[in-house]
Write a structure and sequence with these properties.
The protein has 141 residues and is mainly α. It contains 5 helices and no strands. Helix 2 runs antiparallel to helix 3. The relative contact order is 0.11.
């Protein structure tokens, strides 16, 4: 039996959620569904299993660790794709920005200019634009 979920997002123009909605709308329906499905499982599966209350504590712990691993890998691939220098690939502490409460894009945390000046440009070794090599992904971890 297949499950179904329908969402209707209507973010205000200029919010981060509006930018994401525009991005998802630019993709094919299948690609958008795949991306959203992967992100939902990666970020919400531990909550869903916890809410069900059916799994033993150790299984919840292993599910959390698997989700964390997937998120870290996702962020690593994102950093490579966006050509983000390694020194910026760290968690942002005490971030007060919330994309769901109508915060505008100009409230995104800023990075220091001095950090980006001292970092060398990344070397691209993949022949396919936007793709990375296994070695580049391995260097993240």
């Amino acid at each position: 039996m297949r499950k179904s979920l329908s969402l209707r997002l209507q973010p205000y123009e200029g919010t981060p959620l509006a930018v994401v909605v525009d991005y998802l709308n630019s993709l094919s329906k299948e690609e958008a569904n795949n991306k959203v499905g992967e992100l939902l499982v990666m970020t919400l599966l531990p909550y869903a299993l916890f809410d069900e209350g059916k799994l033993p504590r150790e299984r919840l712990r292993s599910t959390f660790l698997a989700s964390r691993d997937l998120m870290e890998k996702h962020l690593g691939i994102m950093a490579l794709t966006l050509e983000i220098e390694e020194s910026l690939f760290v968690p942002v502490a005490n971030q007060t920005f919330s994309p769901n409460n109508g915060d505008k894009l100009d409230k995104l945390p800023a990075t220091s200019e001095s950090t980006s000046e001292s970092v060398e440009e990344p070397i691209h070794t993949s022949l396919i634009p936007g793709k990375v090599t296994a070695g580049e992904i391995g260097n993240i971890f």
